[in-house]
Amino acid sequence: MRTDHLLFGAAYYLEYLPYNRLETDMEMMERAGMNTIRIAESTWSTLEPSDGVFDFTCIDRMIQTAAKHHLSVIIGTPTYAIPTWLVRKYPDILAVTANGQELYGHRQNMDITHPGYRYHAERIIRAMMEHLKDVPNIIGFQLDNETKSYGTAGPRVQQMFVASLKKKYPDILDFNREFGLDYWSNRVNDWADFPDVRGTINQSLAAEFQRFQRSLVTEFLSWQSDIIKEYKRDDQFITQNFDFDWTDHSYGYQPEVDQYDAARCMTVAGADIYHPSQDDLTGAEITVCGNIARSLKKDNYLILETEAQGLTPWLPYPGQLRLQAYSHLANGSNSVMYWHWHSIHNAIESYWKGVLSHDFSENATYREASEIGAEWKRIGTHLMNLKKENRVAILLDNLSLAGLRQFPLETTGDHSYNAVMRWLADALYRRNIEFDMVSSGERDFSAYDFLVVPALYAASDDLLGALDRYVAEGGHLIATFRTGFADEQLKIHHDVQPHLLGRCLGIHYDQFTYPKNVRIATTDGRSALTHDWMELVTCDTATPLAHYDHPFWGSYAAVTENAYQKGSALYLGAFFDDELLEPLLVSYLSRHGYEGLSEDTPQFPLIVKRGTNDFGKNLCYYFNYSGEPRTVIHTGNAGTDLLTDTPVAAGAVLTLAPWGLAVVES
């Protein structure tokens, strides 16, 4: 979505304040150069304090004061946290999950399919939209908040699931065969006998139910979007703040939502990205998760939540807040919005701090945000709507993510798919090889010279055939272990692995194990320790680039390259340490036409990102993700550093302060 200015601001909750300081807060925001607030998404119990009684006083006051201070407003539908009276009215509105029925208290504890929930959610949305439809400074609407199915698996949901299976498999014999239900007498001979899916030991059926749960999210967001569209103006957008797989921060592709499907009902994709700071700040999460967000609509996206002070370990060093903000823009975001403006004085998020601390006074974070706001007022038109054209893409697949949650790698557990994806993505990032993300729902990958496929464990023959054609027609494929292993129902193929990709990759294998003290060695003398997974690969037409340095596994290849018709394929048969992965990737890309990669080109902590702005000019962002001054050579044409308004010659040496940056327009 194109915009005529960058959005900069924070979530704001008048409802949470210990005393009235609305005017003061909005004045401080305006003074800091902020121009947008997000409101309402978590305040259903305030907006509808009792059944059918609506009170929009807080919303009205925030909107009116925002207009006075030239702040636009994004309204969130308040449906992700239900009021107590609704639970009393419908006790079964609380989701039944694998752990039993939810208790009231935390957010996102309801069954999103419950008819009573849907009735009241629609009623509050319509009442709010009717009340706000003519307000000029509302620029867009956020559907719900970080929506998922919340594990809902009660009797009605399971009946819906069985109905979907009956439609997909009219012949129950086909259903039993596809899911291998003869095992342990799990066969279902009559749909009426279908057991509680929460107890299944059949990973295929469990993954199918998870796919169904993801479809509930897509339907739910589309349902909300259709309601909003009845009221919104043409100039107002619809978005959702998608979040990501989580370790102790945003990590990778979300396992509980088919985000590519869910985003179809929206004008613009939105994202919430949180990450470590201080010495652990790398920018990798901003890049990986931002690339996912950019790929959902193949367009610019919005950062609707990111940290200001954040969790206690995340308090940023001086300069880091600014570095992070520009990193989002360099990735294609048209906004940076903080969760949240003011720190909360009670409840579970009391120590997830906002821009202001608990005393509401100006602080270092506020002053640095003000610096960002002043710069964006001056140069924001040069930074918005950045267009990026990358030659490398990473394929993302929900089904394989689910499959490797069911059959994980040795130690990486539920995050095994994302661990493999991040292994590759972070190596590219550290070497300043910019990349896009693409959905496994696509079949034409010809827009990219290089396609990276992490652990495509479960895939249709149609998708595998598309990858084969991609290479045959001149593409360069980088695939990892556990690719082409199972079908769409997680049923393992009974032919030689990897299924349908053997000719393309030029290899086969039939054994694998967890490595213990196994190293791999390349033909040029490099070495690294393997971990989590290794396949005993035999080369058919491929050339081995690395083998296992081991007395018993030494005859097997660990990394191979194969020429296949007009293209080539690199196969990584084991998980191994980063110090070997990076040179292998750089060497492969360089051999096949990716220019500008050498040991002398910038590497992390120097990060370089490029794109084209609305003026048709090239932007080159230079970031220093370290606490020491760094120098970098400007490799573009002569231009101007927008931050300092100083000329930059081609080949000029730029000095970046600790956690500093430069933005050269040429």
From TrEMBL:
GO terms for cellular component: beta-galactosidase complex. Residues 391-593 form the Beta-galactosidase trimerisation domain. It catalyses: Hydrolysis of terminal non-reducing beta-D-galactose residues in beta-D-galactosides. InterPro entries: Beta_galactosidase_C, Beta_galactosidase_Trimer, Class_I_gatase-like, GH, Glyco_hydro_42, Glyco_hydro_42_N. Keywords: Glycosidase, Hydrolase, Metal-binding, Zinc. Its EC number is 3.2.1.23. It is an enzyme of class 3 (hydrolase). Substrate binds at R107, N145, W314. It holds the Pfam family Glyco_hydro_42. The keyword DNA damage does not apply. The keyword Mitochondrion does not apply. CDD domains: A4_beta-galactosidase_middle_domain. It comes from the Bacteria. One of its GO terms (molecular function) is beta-galactosidase activity. Residues 619-665 form the Beta-galactosidase C-terminal domain. GO terms for biological process: galactose metabolic process. Residues 12-378 form the Glycoside hydrolase family 42 N-terminal domain. The active site is at E146, E305. Belongs to the glycosyl hydrolase 42 family. This is Beta-galactosidase. It comes from Roseburia hominis (strain DSM 16839 / JCM 17582 / NCIMB 14029 / A2-183).
